[in-house]
Design goal:
The protein has 3 helices and 19 strands. It is mainly beta and 309 residues long. It has a 19-stranded antiparallel β-sheet that branches. A hairpin with a 4-residue loop joins strand 14 and strand 15.
Amino acid sequence: MILKTFLTFLAFLLLTSGAFAEEEKLQESDQQIQDFSLSSFGEKGKKSWDLSGKSADIFSDVVKLKSVVGNLYGKDEDIKLTADNGDFDKAQSKIHLQENVVITTSSGAKLTTKSLDWDRKNQLVTSKDIVNIEKGNMVTTASGVYGEPGLKKVSLEKDVTVNINPTPAENGKEPSVKKKIVITCDGALQIDYQKNVATFNKNVKVDTQDALIESDIMDVYFGGTGKAAPEKKKEKDADSAGMGSIMGAGGASKIDKIVARINVKITRGENVSYSDEATYDAVNKKIILSGKPKLILYSGEGLDASLGN
């Protein structure tokens, strides 16, 4: 996922700043390096990373970077980071990237924000600014991001919106997403990479244009681990591809299950259902209402829903 990969890349950026610290030890006064460029080569002479910038002003406690451009060349994916400015606090092992922070991956993911703070000692990355993440037909925006220890969990703090846009038809096939899907919540959106689950919190709404699902909490399980019957497999792929992994986990990740909890309301036209919990099985295309379910159904023919019509 893009969040996980850019956190790894920021760790690499901090390590390279050690070169500036060593240079400072040889000088008694502050200095400036113009048009600096650093690079490292791994096995068989393959470049593993490079870092360049317009200037680096070296002070006793901090290194100020201008026009930062870095590249990390991975086995499966390359990552590029750019920022107008960067401050590295050598004593606290923290780096602050400021203005036009952009992180892109060779797989097509892109993250933009105004600023990012990386705490090397505590393995945390944070930002209070608006974060925008683009991956394929999915665009996610939120205010604030927080990466927990080990970089295995990420939280988008508040005002989360996930837009899943329609996909074009290819080679005569039906598009995987025919209508736009919008997921919103007040926050936070918590993503656990180990468990392959994304949890939306507070005032969660899923608008599929055909139906509106509302709840206090919603768990979205992804990873493509579910197994459908052979005749259902094609339907399952088309249905779940549009929801994909929440933050761009890759083409192979599919939604397995959605669990809406607490004050669940599903509106489809004039028909409304209420329950304590609703579980959508993406593999078998079933929805189960539990916890005092209540259905209000309307029929154009004037039939009484209470009699089973």
